[in-house]
Amino acid sequence: MAFDKGCHLHLIDGSAYIFRAYHALPPLTRKSDGLPIGAVAGFCNMLHRYVLDSNGGDAPTHAAVIFDHSGHTFRNDLYDLYKANREAMPEDLRPQIPLTRRATEAFNIACHEIEGYEADDIIATLACEARNRGGRVTILSSDKDLMQLVGGGVELLDPMKNRRIDAAAVEERFGVPPERVVDAQALAGDSVDNIPGAPGIGIKTAALLINEYGDLDTLLDRAGEIPQPRRRQTLIEHRVQIELSRELVRLDCDTPLDFSLDDLAVRDYDPDVLLPFLAEMEFRSLSRRIAEHLGVEAPAIPEPEATATAAPETPGFDDVKHERIGDAATLAQWIERIRARGYVAVDTETTSLDEMKAELVGVALCVEPGHAAYLPLRHRPGAGSDLFADDSLAVGQMPVDEALALLKPVLEDPAILKIGQNIKYDAKILARCGIDIAPIDDTMLLSYALHAGLHGHGMDTLCERYLGHTPLPIKPLLGAGKSAITFDRVTVDDALPYAAEDADVTLRLWQAFKPQLHRERVTTVYETLERPLIPVLAQMEMNGIKVDRATLSRMSSAFAQKMAGLEAEIHGLAGETFNIGSPKQLGEILFDKMNLPGGKRGKTGAYSTNVDVLEDLATEHDLARRVLDWRAISKLKSTYTDALQTHINPETGRVHTCYSIAGANTGRLASTDPNLQNIPVRSEEGRRIREAFVAEEGNLLVSLDYSQIELRILAHIAGIDELKAAFAEGLDIHALTASEMFHVPLDQMTPEIRRQAKAINFGVIYGISGFGLARNLRIPRAEAQGFIDRYFERFPGIRDYMERTKAFAREHEYVQTLFGRRIRTPEINAKGPRSGLAYRAAINAPIQGTAADVIRRAMIRMPAAIKGLPARMLLQVHDELLFEVAEGAVDEVISRARDVMENAADPVVHLDVKLTVDAGSGPNWAQAH
DNA sequence: GACATCACG
DNA sequence: GACGTACGTGATGTCC
């Protein structure tokens, strides 16, 4: 219905409704699975009451609920601190947000949000247009920011107090008419939205000044005439800030809309949509009331006890329906199912584990356990078919473009949750198909938040442990070794049960894990440290880093020559040729043939020939020294200069590592294929490998790393005042430790004493033992124990921390980081030789894990912080972030990135110790570090 | 595929 | 009283 003169538009501030609903109700959960649902319940009640109330004499002809799109808006581009002091969304509210969109649609009310804009801007744009077309507008909100829109047929209605706010009411509130509200707010600022305004000027003074001078521009131009010196000075000094504040406060009436005013015509409830939704949410009384209102029968909502007895409702894995999607009609049917559900498990099948090379072969979907589908897209004809038609496609597949065009709106729909197992993989594949999948949940990360330390988080492990089922293996489909084929060569018939089952399993795991999150109190961990990291890492991995093949190749040749020389020497010294790379052969040469001392056999009966052993021999025997040299070079060549070259992507000329989010128990990331977190740096020769990691023309690599982050966190957690003070004063922490322990004044510190103290500091983080320290420092064990005793005497808080942590771990079988990440310690109460390991791991995990949480938080905030700058985040190495930045922007990037990193713990955790970040830049990684 | 070794934080 | 011992990772080569 077209919006014309005489029409009446209602605009509901959806986000305000949600927060009101959330705070008005206790934290209700859905009975059957524990999903937090209180805000959705309140929201639905408010919507229904709104519909009943608005059906009076002044009924709207058009109505819409407008939501804030999550994340960044144009105001953040204007001012990066905009709304920066807002508290994070409560953990149990976040999962309810998509449900409120679904609720609005279920109530058959238009529902809109637009990326990059706030709800207020959309409201402003619609209100302006409605007014221009001669209609009336009622905005259901009490937000003072919307008061600037009042007038000319636009009014606010405070839904709580049921009070209309017209121009007179606005003037009463602000002291200025609606059209001057922006000016007054720009002056007064706003602490809630973090709008600076003019310091020292509140709303009263602002109104006074605006009324006297007419408007803000005139006031600022004539600020010099203000008699009061403080006001005059403030306005002159802060003009830029005031003008920025005005831009932040002023609503954008030109928001680009992807719908029209005419689309908002009021519609009746559709009982076939609304009642099933209410039933799904298990809103019993509201369902009944609305069913009565509509004169239909209320849907039956089974009590959880009833469903528990009827548990076999969830089919087993042998009783499943797996459909093949071969045409657009079938796909459309599935998309309808997905839209009705609001979530879908997704699994992509491809030709490679390397997402940068993989081609999409098919997509599996599942919306309820036991009912999954596979959409084959690029399967090739099987073996035995015409060899010349090798690149052709198997029959019965939809055109890829057509299928993706249908799927894209669903996969990008903010109201539909996409669930995957390790969905970063699928997100990257889809990104290369032009699909930006969101919002997402990841069963691997749900398991990681719930069970880190208990077991791995691969699909097979999870399926076996939590669903009691072994998923179909991929091996029989692909084969192994040389004869292995890629997934596109698997027939669709063979692929179907495998692919469909993976999506099915993923959905079942999600249903098992998601409600647990809340019960185990790790929702915040998952929502703030795991899930938001997925797109950030996906982008970094796709960015890759440029690696210069020629440099590596030159180094490989040089290493090969050196190795050949050493090899000849070693064989000469040994008196025979043997494989130096074989510890077995080397051990026999050293300890059997040459009868050198120190031959210790390991559990397999072979002599140990590791660095420690060889290092002891090297002082007396050239052979050992040469072998050490050979090993060092062999390592550099095989693991780095040779292997890295094979990882350069031929299309991008860059190396694209893959980060495992759930690989390390402590919350650290792990880097694979290749591992770019262990590129040499400690030896001069090794560090030169970093010269091959370069920036593109006109760019520099920029490295920022936390200084001593783990020791700082230890100082905070254990509450060691001396260490805190030392960090606060920027002292050399190892020298200070040495001074405290050995009573050497700082100005008489020797490198040797400092080195020992440094080893002790690190030892403490690792759960120190006399034996370990002795080995590290190559000193007698008794002496090492003496150091430790003295350390604990000097810093008793550290020992207290260790004891506290051990006791906590023993009691709970987990430890946790400052941000609530839990690391399970199932071995802690086991007896036997492994218990020592469990203790030390328990002591280390909160420290290492908290540091990992901090840099995760920094990484998650980084894209917004450097948005608009010619800069890309490339790598993370535990306490370091590496960027590639256009030369002119280096200083700005360092400044912004440092700010994010140093304040990454805020506002959730206030560290007693400041985090500091060192920065460097250069044409390659060696020079940037 | 197990093991030893060694690169990083 | 003996045992095994610094925390967390991933990649490589040898050998079975």
TrEMBL record:
UniProt entry keywords in alphabetical sequence: DNA damage, DNA repair, DNA replication, DNA-binding, DNA-directed DNA polymerase, Exonuclease, Hydrolase, Nuclease, Nucleotidyltransferase, Transferase
InterPro entries for this protein: 3'-5'_exonuclease_dom, 5-3_exonucl_a-hlix_arch_N, 5-3_exonuclease, 5-3_exonuclease_C_sf, DNA-dir_DNA_pol_A_CS, DNA-dir_DNA_pol_A_palm_dom, DNA/RNA_pol_sf, DNA_polI_H3TH
UniProt-recorded Gene Ontology molecular function terms: 3'-5' exonuclease activity; 5'-3' exonuclease activity; DNA binding; DNA-directed DNA polymerase activity
Matching PROSITE patterns: DNA_POLYMERASE_A
GO BP of this protein: DNA-templated DNA replication; double-strand break repair
Enzyme Commission designation: 2.7.7.7
The keyword Cell cycle belongs to this UniProt entry's keyword annotation: no
Domain 5'-3' exonuclease: 4-267
Residue span(s) of domain DNA-directed DNA polymerase family A palm: 686-889
Pfam family, one: DNA_pol_A
Domain 3'-5' exonuclease: 322-518
Catalysis performed (reactions): DNA(n) + a 2'-deoxyribonucleoside 5'-triphosphate = DNA(n+1) + diphosphate
Membrane among keywords: no
NCBIfam families: pola (TIGR00593), PRK05755.1 (NF004397)
Subunit structure and binding partners: Single-chain monomer with multiple functions.
Family statement: Belongs to the DNA polymerase type-A family.
Function (record text): In addition to polymerase activity, this DNA polymerase exhibits 3'-5' and 5'-3' exonuclease activity.
Protein name, UniProt field: DNA polymerase I
